[in-house]
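Deliverable D4.2, example record:
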Amino acid sequence: MTDMCGRYANFLAEQDLIDHFAIATVADDARLAPSWNVSPTQQVAIVIPPKDDDPGRRLEAARWGLVPSWAKDPGIGARMINARSETLADKPSFRTAFAKRRCAVPASGYFEWHTGPDGKQPYWIHTEDGAPLAFAGLYEFWKDKAAAEDAEWLVTTTIVTTAARGDMRDIHDRQPVMMQPDALEAWLDRDADQGTLLDVIAMPAPDLASHPVRKAVGSPQNNAPENIEPVDD
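Output generated by the structure prediction step:
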């Protein structure tokens, strides 16, 4: 199977994001419209950890598809929407961000495609209690070396994935790393060591539920609440 996650949804209200993720500051460009079909290369919301001079968590915006700082062209980001947890510490594209720039990617749920005898069927996967999901993510800053010194930095992000667990294995062989509060706290700790971070990846995900949805979700142009409504498999 191919890697995931290639589509998710975030229709969480701003106050729900603030409350669930203990956010102190919301950047203006992070006030994004609700989406039932978040797609690669789009602007998404990320939660970044506190800084020494700004102790609260921040909700920021980033383009989905990580562009390493050393990349010659930002187009590489379209191939970097996911980062496999098994190679985070070693792969040049991700190892610096894994060590220094970890974030959470808020979501209402995500879509995954199961390949069966009749082709691919998308599923909507979400928490059983409707609580927000916190995907483990990385973020990076990139600037064209030929650009003017005052040119803006491009902020990009990727979602960390791991081997599917439990019932999710019936749908796909991969899943996002989904963090509960203790894991989120550790992941956003700028001083966390590698062993602690690998423990976070191994921690249990929230209890999940799933159901088949319309195949139209495969097109980024189809963005409506109907995307998450159940259909006959």
